[in-house]
Amino acid sequence: MALQRGQRILRFPDGFLWGTASSSHQCEGSNTNNQWYRWEQSGRTLTGETSGDAANWWQEAEQDFSLAEQMENNALRLSIEWSRVEPSEGRWDSAAIDRYRQMLADLHRRHMKPLVTLHHFTDPLWFADRGGFTKVENIRYFVRYVSYVVEKLQDLCNFWITINEPNIYAVLGYLFGEYPPGDQDLMRAMRVLRNMMQAHVEAFHAIYHIQPQSQIGCCLHYRLFDPASQLVPLDRAAAGLQNTFFNWSPLQGGETGKFIFPFNLLLAPIKGAAGTRDFHGVNYYTRDLVRFDPTRPAEMFGRRFALPGAVRNDPGLANNFGEIYAKGLYRVLQSVYRRTRGNKPLYITENGFSDTRDDRRPRAILEHLALVHQAIREGIPVRGYLHWTLVDNFEWTEGWGVRFGLIELDPRTQERTPRISASMFGEICRANAITEAIVARYAPDAMESIFGIARQESSRLSV
Ligand code: BGC
């Protein structure tokens, strides 16, 4: 890309990974053998919709990989569907593995590094029916599946995310009852969280044994909770408890095996946790303000809401997508770095916006990336940014009602229409930088906020 003289530029480090993230159930279609399918079939999604053909990746993922290639992405995160690979206990489907091999080989041909998630919210029905992750003795099934997949795909992938967001899976499925199995039981939710993190540890060792040179980690969802009023001690306490429960206790549990007080009193430590990650996967979307509310014990005595007047995502029926808050990503990167003593590189394994009209996303991406750049400049080793997501896909309980794609998808016709954000993301990836020209083209109003963020370091290009 031609840069004009005197342009301000935020250049990312050489080798920075640029791409998108997605998951099997949300994109593949025809996944009929997992607990989410059953949930959809029993009419439990908020919109009543089902995943159906989703984005049709089981047939034609390569068509979307080609769109990612056109954006000059050099990485792509996808997940393997356990219920395809092991449709019933101990029975392995080699045709499913072959299909994943095709997809990964196609990514390599397009010069995109595959980052592969081994569990992204979906469980085979047989596993769910045995109690899933509520039972510590079921962890061995997950580890056996992981070993099988890594054996079969190791020549095509060396970057593994064992489990996506155990904190979301546990909280939405077992505490808030919004995801299957629809439980509302704090103790069970905590046990699931703990068992999934134990499963990560055991999967880490299994993968390491098979492929010692691979990079292995997991990702947590970080959602910031800020007190509605700094002056109200009970607001501060409720927000603090939510941050500890949802963000920092899982992070610390994964690092040291011990959860943070008071959750350590309720949960068995994770055995052998230390040293079981080569990177930290950071998924970040939004923050909430928290007002103390004694009627909400399941939410740690806090009522959550979005900052009034803030620029927002499309809210969805559950009104869960909240504020677009770029600073939050920076704060999360700082906290993860500090709390883990900077021991490992960080990857932003998800960050995205529900914005059907695409009239907030371009600016949001730029502002978030400018702060990622600032974090890197301050020495935080962020190595990649995976935007959620490439094409609109099945958004769990929100069905097709909220749209996170850089590319619009009509699920009835499977027609794709790139949004403006897709062109912009392509330009950023191609340049490995945010330039003034890009900001001028896609979010001129954000010029000062973007380069103001990076005020102290904006370097002048001499071309
Ligand atoms: C999940 C994705 C989901 C996204 C947007 C993340 O927590 O990993 O599967 O689509 O949020 O809600």
As residue ranges, the low-confidence spans are 456-463
Report the end-to-end length measured between terminal Cα atoms: 12 Å
Can you list the ligands bound to this structure? Answer: beta-D-glucopyranose
CATH third-level topology: TIM Barrel
**Helical proportion?**
25-40%
Cα Rg: 21 Å
CATH homologous superfamily classification: Glycosidases
What's the CATH architecture name? Answer: Alpha-Beta Barrel
Biggest sheet overview: 8 strands, parallel, barrel
Number of strands: 14
Supply the helix-strand structural class: alpha/beta
Discrete helix count: 15
Domain count: the total is: 1
Q: Which percent range describes the beta-strand content?
A: 15-25%
CATH class reads Alpha Beta
Mean pLDDT: 95
Q: How would you sum up the global shape?
A: globular
H/E element sequence: EEHHHEHHEHHEHHEHEEHEHEEEHEHHE
Any overview of this molecule?
- With 463 residues, this protein is an alpha/beta fold.
- Helix content is 39%, strand content 17%.
- The protein is built from 15 helices and 14 strands.
- The strands form 3 sheets. An 8-stranded parallel β-barrel has the order 2-3-4-5-6-7-9-10, surrounded by 6 helices.
- β6 (215-227), α10 and β7 (279-292) form a beta-alpha-beta unit.
- The relative contact order is 0.15.
- Mean pLDDT is 95; it is low at 456-463.
- The structure holds beta-D-glucopyranose.
Summarize the structure.
The chain is an alpha/beta fold and 463 residues long. It has 15 helices and 14 strands.
Helix-strand blueprint:
Elements: E1 8-11, E2 17-21, H1 24-27, H2 35-41, H3 57-70, E3 75-79, H4 82-85, H5 94-109, E4 113-117, H6 125-129, H7 139-153, E5 159-164, H8 166-174, H9 186-210, E6 215-227, H10 233-256, E7 279-292, E8 302-305, H11 326-339, E9 346-351, H12 361-377, E10 382-387, E11 407-410, E12 415-418, H13 420-431, E13 433-435, H14 436-442, H15 447-453, E14 459-460
Parallel strand pairs: 2-3, 2-10, 3-4, 4-5, 5-6, 6-7, 7-9, 9-10
Antiparallel strand pairs: 1-13, 1-14, 7-8, 11-12
The structure holds beta-D-glucopyranose.
